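Propose amino acids for all 231 sites.
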């Protein structure tokens, strides 16, 4: 059996979108991701790694639903150590999603919640977006001599701060805690408009991810696996 392309996500809804023929999806929070990814590679092998899912926007003016295909991943926990993605893989994905931004992304250990913090990270890194998995994917790929690529969709624009209810509604596994949202809203009803905007942004991001995944499958072969096997 040929080795799979391993697609890495941080949230269950991202994993559901990513699944397809010829790939193995690893979905884990950043605290356990490295171990689960190492175990998968040891058990099944890997032809390469794909960091797939959503990211927080850092460039002003970039809207929710915008694809970002990374040139480099800046590992912020390790003093912005840089990892260059596979040029062949990134170019192939960019041909499939031509409106995607080709830019650097930043790997962080916690969500970048406020507009002020996003602006500060943008000034520090120059990255277009930030997520909590790509730097871990990059480290593991380098350790094993594997190609990797980052394909992420902006879910919250740089100018927007997440309301407390959005964070209260996120469980540690990435699933939604409706009771947490309701409790937060009961304590501060004025955050409802901001929470509704978050929901709209999330809907745009999910739609873009689903559509982009289909484009990649159609343009490059039967799923990520066949696509990457031919590069």
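Proposal:
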């Amino acid at each position: 059996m040929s080795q799979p392309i391993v697609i890495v996500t941080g949230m269950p809804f991202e994993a559901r979108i990513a699944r397809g023929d010829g790939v193995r999806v690893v979905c884990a929070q950043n605290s356990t991701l490295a171990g689960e990814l190492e175990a998968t590679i040891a058990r099944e092998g890997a032809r390469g790694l794909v960091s797939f899912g959503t990211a927080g926007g850092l460039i002003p003016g970039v809207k929710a639903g915008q694809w970002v295909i990374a040139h480099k991943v800046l590992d912020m926990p390790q003093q912005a150590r840089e990892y260059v993605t596979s040029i062949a893989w990134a170019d192939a994905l960019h041909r499939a999603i031509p409106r995607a931004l080709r830019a650097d992304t930043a790997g962080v250990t916690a969500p970048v919640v406020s507009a002020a913090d996003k602006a500060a990270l943008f000034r520090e890194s120059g990255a277009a977006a930030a997520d909590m998995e790509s730097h871990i994917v990059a480290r593991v790929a380098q350790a094993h001599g594997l190609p990797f690529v980052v394909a992420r969709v902006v879910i919250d624009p740089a100018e927007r701060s997440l309301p407390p209810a959005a964070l209260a509604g996120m469980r540690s596994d990435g699933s939604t805690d409706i009771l947490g949202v309701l409790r937060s809203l009961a304590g501060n009803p004025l955050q409802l408009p901001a929470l509704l905007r978050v929901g709209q942004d999330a809907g745009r991001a999910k739609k873009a991810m689903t559509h982009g995944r289909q484009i990649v499958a159609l343009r490059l072969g039967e799923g990520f696996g066949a696509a990457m096997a031919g590069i």
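Confidence is low (pLDDT under 50) at residues 219-231. The longest strand covers residues 48-57.
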